[in-house]
Design goal:
Belongs to the class-V pyridoxal-phosphate-dependent aminotransferase family. NifS/IscS subfamily. InterPro entries: Aminotrans_V_dom (IPR000192), Aminotrans_V_PyrdxlP_BS (IPR020578), Cysteine_dSase (IPR016454), PyrdxlP-dep_Trfase (IPR015424), PyrdxlP-dep_Trfase_major (IPR015421), PyrdxlP-dep_Trfase_small (IPR015422). This is cysteine desulfurase. By secondary structure, the chain is α/β, with parallel strands linked by helices. It has two domains: 135 residues, Aspartate Aminotransferase, domain 1 (Alpha-Beta Complex), CATH 3.90.1150.10; 239 residues, Aspartate Aminotransferase, domain 2 (3-Layer(aba) Sandwich). Helices cover 42% and strands 13% of the residues. The strands form three sheets. A seven-stranded mixed sheet has the order 2-8-7-6-5-3-4, with helices on both faces. Helix 1 packs antiparallel against helix 8, helix 2 packs parallel to helix 8 and helix 9 packs parallel to helix 13. The longest helix is centred in the last third of the chain and has 26 residues. Bound molecules: pyridoxal-5'-phosphate. Pyridoxal-5'-phosphate (PLP) binds next to helix 3. The site of pyridoxal-5'-phosphate has 13 residues, from helix 3.
Length: 381
C-alpha cells in the first residue's frame, strides 16, 4: 500500500537501520570504562555530533530522551520552575499543551493560549501584547505544525520574548530533518525533536538546552545522573545511534529532498483539487513544510474516506490523538466547522515517497471521496 503518514511516523532510513544493527550486535554500557563501554560511548558521542551538525549547535547542548513528548515535558518543567506565565498556542501538540496546562493548573491565569488565524498562524501583535501585560517566564511555540505543516516565524517571537527576559522553547518535532535548522540564528533556548519523524527509530528523541540559560535542574527521571544529570537511566545506545545516522543522512540531502517532496505534495494537491470540486487545502497560503497536505473534502467524513481507501495509509487529524472522538483541535482553532474538520485528511510525504505512489494515491482518494460523498447524499436524501 502507499504510505502517506510520515508525520505519524516515517520509515527508517537505510543508513539508520544499518547503524542500529551494528550497535545492536555490540555489547557495552556507555557509562562503563572498559573497552566495550568506551565503544558504546563513542557511538553515542558520534550521534550527538551528527545531531549537533544538523542543528548547528554544540554537542554538549544535547540531551537524549525517549522522544519529543519527554523532551517537551522536561523543557517546560525545567523552564517554568520559577512560576510566572506560560505563553503557548492553540495549535500545539498535546505534548506541549497538556504539559503547560498541568504546570499552571494551580495558579489561575498563568497560562495564555494564543489563538491562530484561518491559515493556522499566530497573531504576532496579540503575542507581543501578552508579553507586555504579564510576567511571562516561558514561551513555547512549535516550529511546524503536525497537522497542517504551517511553519512559525520564530525570530520576531524570540526577540520579543528575550526582551522581557522570558525563555523560548520550540517543539521542532515535525521540522527537524525536513528543512534546515540553524540554532545560532534561531536563538531559541530549548528545542525538542524526535527521531522517528525523520527516518530514525521510535522511542528516542532529544532536547537542545542552550548553554548558560537559567533552568531549574530537576530531572523527570531521577537515578544515576546520566545526560549531565538531566535524564537518568542507561542510554538507549542503538536508538541514539539510529537517531544520529538518520540526522546525518537527512543533513546530506536536506534541500534536494525538500524540493523533491514539495513537488510531489503539489502534484497530490493539484490533482485532488482538480478532480474533486469543493475540496480545499488548509493553510496553502502559509509557509508550510514540504511534505504535508491537509485537505478537506466537505460532506465526506475522514474516517469513511480512509475506510474506503485501504491501499493508502493517511490520517484523519493527527494520529497522535487517534481514538479521540472530537474533531482536530488544530483545525477547529483555525476556524473550520466541526463538519469540515471531520472531513479532513492529512497526507504526509517524506524521504521515500515516489511520484508513482502519489499517482496511485490520487486514483484511490478520488474514488473513495466520490463514493463516500454519494453515500452521504443518498442517506441525507
Ligand atoms: N510534537 C509534535 C509536533 C509531534 O508531531 C509529535 C508526534 O507525535 C510529538 C510532539 C510527540 O513525539 P514523540 O512520539 O517522539 O513523543
Amino acid at each position: 500500500s502507499v504510505y502517506l503518514d510520515y508525520n505519524a511516523t516515517a520509515p527508517m532510513r537505510p543508513a539508520a537501520l544499518k547503524a542500529m544493527e551494528e550497535a545492536l550486535h555490540s555489547v557495552g554500557n556507555a557509562s562503563s570504562i572498559h573497552h566495550q563501554g568506551r565503544d558504546a560511548a563513542g557511538r553515542v558521542d558520534q550521534s550527538r555530533r551528527f545531531l549537533a551538525d544538523l542543528l548547528n549547535c554544540s554537542a554538549s547542548e544535547i540531551i537524549f530522551t525517549s522522544g519529543a513528548t519527554e523532551a517537551n515535558n522536561l523543557a517546560l518543567q525545567a523552564a517554568y520552575a520559577e512560576g510566572g506565565l506560560i505563553v503557548t498556542s492553540a495549535v500545539e501538540h498535546p505534548a506541549v499543551l497538556e504539559v503547560a496546562r498541568a504546570l499552571t493548573s494551580e495558579i489561575p491565569g498563568s497560562l495564555s493560549v494564543l489563538p491562530v488565524d484561518r491559515l493556522g498562524q499566530i497573531d504576532l501583535e496579540a503575542f507581543t501584547e501578552s508579553l507586555q501585560r504579564y510576567d511571562v517566564t516561558l514561551v513555547s511555540l512549535m516550529l511546524a505544525n503536525n497537522e497542517t505543516g504551517v511553519i512559525t516565524d520564530l525570530r520576531p517571537v524570540v526577540e520579543a520574548a528575550h526582551a522581557v527576559g522570558a525563555l523560548v522553547h520550540t517543539d521542532a518535532t515535525q521540522y527537524v530533518g525536513k528543512l534546515p535548522v540553524d540554532l545560532e540564528e534561531l536563538d531559541v533556548d530549548l528545542l525538542s525533536l524526535s527521531a522517528h519523524k525523520f527516518g530514525g527509530p521510535q522511542g528516542v528523541g532529544a532536547l537542545f538546552i542552550r548553554r548558560g540559560i537559567r533552568l531549574s535542574q530537576r530531572p523527570l527521571v531521577f537515578g544515576g545522573g546520566h545526560e549531565r544529570g538531566w535524564r537518568a537511566g542507561t542510554l538507549n545506545v542503538p536508538g541514539i545511534v539510529g537517531l544520529g545516522a538518520a540526522a546525518e543522512a537527512a543533513n546530506h540531502r536536506l534541500l534536494d529532498e525538500a524540493s523533491r517532496i514539495a513537488k510531489l505534495r503539489d502534484l497530490l494537491e493539484g490533482e485532488l483539487l482538480a478532480r474533486l470540486p469543493g475540496s480545499y487545502v488548509n493553510s496553502s497560503r502559509a509557509p508550510r513544510l514540504p511534505g504535508v497536505a491537509s485537505i478537506t473534502f466537505p460532506g465526506a467524513p475522514a474516517d469513511a474516506i480512509l475506510a474506503s481507501m485501504p491501499g493508502v495509509a493517511a490520517s484523519d487529524g493527527s494520529a497522535c490523538s487517534a481514538g479521540a472522538p472530537s474533531p482536530s483541535h488544530v483545525l477547529v482553532a483555525m476556524g473550520l466547522s466541526r463538519e469540515d474538520a471531520d472531513a479532513t485528511i492529512r497526507f504526509s510525504l517524506g524521504h521515500s515517497t515516489t511520484e508513482q505512489e502519489i499517482r496511485r494515491a490520487v486514483v484511490a482518494a478520488v474514488r473513495a471521496v466520490t463514493h463516500v460523498q454519494a453515500l452521504m447524499n443518498a442517506t441525507a436524501g
